[in-house]
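To whoever is on call:

I kicked off a structure prediction for a single chain this morning and the downstream step that reads the tokens threw a length-mismatch warning. I double-checked the sequence; it's 270 residues and nothing unusual in it as far as I can see. Pasting both halves so you can look.
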Amino acid sequence: MDETKPILIQDAEQRVHVSSLAGALRSSHSQLQLDSCNGLHKFYWVSRGNGRCMVNGVTRAFGPNTVIFIRHDAPHQFKLSSNVFGILVSLEPNVAVALPNQNLFLPILNLIDQKQIANSFDQVNTEFNNSNIGRNLSVEYQSGLLAIKVARMAQKYFKVNKSTAAQRLMERFVHILEKKYRTGHTLADYAKELGVTATHLTRVCQRVNSKSASRLIQERVLAEARMMLSNTDYKILEISNILGFSSAAYFTRLFSAKQGQTPKEFRRSA
């Protein structure tokens, strides 16, 4: 007698990933981790703790009971408190789910709404962590319901505000920076590409993000350097060349001054 179980449902490929927010975002070296554009749409549910998130060059502070949605092509950066807790749902671009068409920051103020949002995230997480048939399809289905719930909350709590000219310039700058931070581009190079003066770009960055354009360029390059030192076997000279530095000595001096460790020391502690 053939006891082979029939395939009752043909499951989909896994296109949704769920993880602990603390585990996904907290760096072992500092509370700052550049997540950048990694091709995934992301829903964050911060149930405890607080922090700051920079998306497209615009920084927002957040506290507990906050939903954050970031589209797959948006460069972003988090700074978190040590007690942060929550869930991260990451979706591949080809997932069969209707998603919000813009990035969202939603402090959920009402207790009933908080419970509904937390329940939506928990349902996605529960399906993700089981091994029943149709698991991937079910996770996508629950993610779709989560996206609808978040969109309804956004419509309930906030009116969509039009971005200012300064914010639009900031977003353009960050997108170009994300594409060209490895080229050795200077502040003047970015300003020229944006059609503004270096002084104006610096003024706008300072106004929108409380950081100069030069500092944002430097932070992006050094974030990539930390990633490469932690996750690759490239030599220091190779990393220096890849990131557009004029010499390995200059790269080492800058990295040491900003990180408090030489590249070699940082790699050993990674």
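Update from on-call: the warning came from a stale cache, not from the record. Cleared it. Sanity check on the structure: Residues 36 and 75 are 4 Å apart (CA to CA).
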